[in-house]
Amino acid sequence: MELLIEKLVQYWAYPFVRYALVVGVLVALCASLLGVTLVLKRFSFIGDGLSHVAFGAMSVASVLNLINDMPLVMGITVLCAILLLGAGQNSKIKGDAAMAMLSVGALAIGYLMMNVFSTSTNLTGDVCTTLFGSTSILTLTQTEVWMCAALSVVVVLLYLFFYHKIFAVTFDESFASATGTRGRVYNLILAVVTAVVIVMAMNLVGSLLISALVIFPAMSAMRLFKSFRAVTICAAVLSVFCAAAGIITSILAGTPVGSTIVAVQIALFVLCSLAGWIGRR
Amino acid sequence: MIQMNCQGLTLGYDSALVRDLSFTVSIGDYLCILGENGAGKSTLMKTILGLLTPLEGSVTLSGGVGANEIGYLPQQTQAQRDFPATVWEVALSGCQGRCGLRPFYTRAEKELARQSLRRMDMERFSRRCYRELSGGQQQRVLLARALCAARKMLLLDEPVAGLDPAASRELYQVIARLNQKDGMTILMISHDVEAALHYASHILYLGEQVFFGTRDAFVRSTPGRGILKPRGGSDHGIAD
Predict the structure, then answer these.
(1) How far is it, in rounded angstroms, from Cα A206 to Cα B191?
(2) Residue of B nearest to A157 (CA)
(3) Are B107 and A64 spatial neighbours (Cβ–Cβ below 8 Å)?
């Protein structure tokens, strides 16, 4: 035990460890807030779909040899989010099919582009890194950390400011629209914010595991609590805890960051389900 | 006094479902909208709520009812049945339309939500979870929410769908009480012809032949006789 603490203190001295922890916790917090709404609106899969789109966009950016790929990746992902969430209700192709097509399509095109045009010698490594997250969380620069922090503050403030409207639109969009809340506008805001958070989270867990950050905290919280407010708060707390615990474990044990966080979340979900089951008896 | 005046409505998406529909609703009316599936009932409802614009014609609200001030009871969605929310949170969200951009509810709005729950006899369930209530209780909570948004008019979309006979009868009585005691104007989409003839003051029938008029006139009309014949007559089987 003492050895572990000593090791932790030793690691804490490195700025990259602190950065990783800060960014990881912030991204997890944002993802869990959005997750509650997305899960309840039956949009759980959107995290997955959009992250594949982001993967596709990232490979296009790397083929084009862009030094700063953020604007392109962000732009394409936001656009897809608006198409899926904003216009999804009335379109001819139903939501889930559209999502599946886009998701698989982007994944395939992304891999194809990397394969055909890549100049990298370690292609499999590159792909694996983008899919499963990587050491890139450990190589964050100070600017990236600040940007991530600023975005997180914006997301949390937006969420607090629109909390009651988010509830109204999530619970019953047609009632909300009929009585003067502009459901479409909030859907649009939700779409854009989701896309932003997902692109931020790519660094942390990679594009295959992002859904876990979105879905698990909300699902765990729903096992335990019965009011929307309690579920939201609990999801945020659980998510922050899982991210911190996952990152620390991965540093100490030398395991991959993304999958360690997800493993912690799975364990917590099982615990919450058990607790909820016992509570109901 | 007239609260709603629909003139020359042509409704539909790409092609017209309903052509040249005109009717009026006055304060205290209890209008049932009947018709087969696909006859345009929900399209008419969305148009009244301002969610769809009519292809032709207009809906004019007056007499104390403004746009967004119709209390709406939608059909329940699957997602709502396991939604983690308390009765209080659901009822309070009915005040959302009054908020504009303001992020929090005022004391007056909270009081309104409390009153609405009390009117539906659901105040003691305030802290209970919505998904744990029975179907009839859930409908009462949603009615309380609608009352928060409504000043003078309620629009109910098949309110008894999925309820057992006892719960249906109870809900019909709650609605009748709102109509008679509180003077709330009721518009109800329904498949339940017998209940419609028992409670409604006016009938709007959508189908090949459109009918609008009082209940008694409907019973004598061609579409009315067409519906009633196979059932062999009047409104028996419903107890007050």
Answers:
(1) 51
(2) B103
(3) no
Question: Scanning the structure block, which residue is given the tokens 């409704």?
Answer: B11
Matching residue, tokens 């370690």: A122
B72 vs A: CB within 8 A: yes
Among residues B139, B118, B137, the alpha carbon closest in space to that of B128 is found at: B137
Only one residue has tokens 């309690």, namely: A230
- In terms of Cβ atoms closer than 10 Å to its own Cβ (0-12, 13-18, 19+), residue A229 is middle
B105/A227 Cβ within 8 A: no
Closest CA to A134 of A244, A238, A209: A209
Chain A residues with CB-CB distance to B80 below 8 A: 171-172
Q: Per residue in A247-256, pLDDT tens?
A: 889 888 888 8
d(CA A252, CA A19): 16
The Cα of A164 is separated from the nearest Cα of chain B by a number of Å equal to 7
Inform me whether the pLDDT recorded for B239 exceeds 50: no
Q: Are B35 and B224 in contact (CB under 8 A)?
A: no
Determine contact: A228 vs chain B, CB below 8 A: yes
Using pLDDT thresholds of 50, 70 and 90, give the confidence band for residue B192: confident
Render pLDDT for B50-59 as a digit per residue (tens, 0 to 9): 888 888 888 8
CA angle A127, A129, A130 (to 5 degrees): 70
A77, A57 contact by CB (below 8 A): yes
**Which H or E run contains B97?**
helix B96-99
Contact A247, A195 (CB under 8 A): no
Q: Tens digits of per-residue pLDDT, A8-43?
A: 888 888 888 888 888 889 999 999 999 999 999 888
ipTM of this model? 0.85
Please count the other Cβ atoms lying within 10 Å of the Cβ belonging to residue A45. Answer: 18
Closest partner CB to B51 (pick from A165, A172, A178):
A178
Per-residue model confidence as pLDDT tens digits over B77-129: 877 877 899 999 999 998 888 887 888 899 999 999 999 999 888 999 999 99
Q: What are phi and psi of A206, to 5 degrees?
A: 80, 165
- The owner of tokens 């009929």 is A178
Question: How close A225 comes to chain B (CA, Å)?
Answer: 7
Contact B125/A at CB under 8 A: no
Angle between helices A142-161 and A15-40 (to 10 degrees): 30
Q: Which residues of A are less than 8 Å from B14 in CB distance?
A: none
pLDDT digits 0-9 by tens, A105-132? 988 988 888 888 766 666 777 777 777 7
Question: What is the value of pTM for the model shown?
Answer: 0.86
Count A/B contacts: CB-CB distance under 8 Å.
Answer: 91
Identify the bridge partners of residue B56 per DSSP, sorted by sequence position. B10
- Whether the CB of B224 is below 8 Å from some CB of chain A: the reply is no
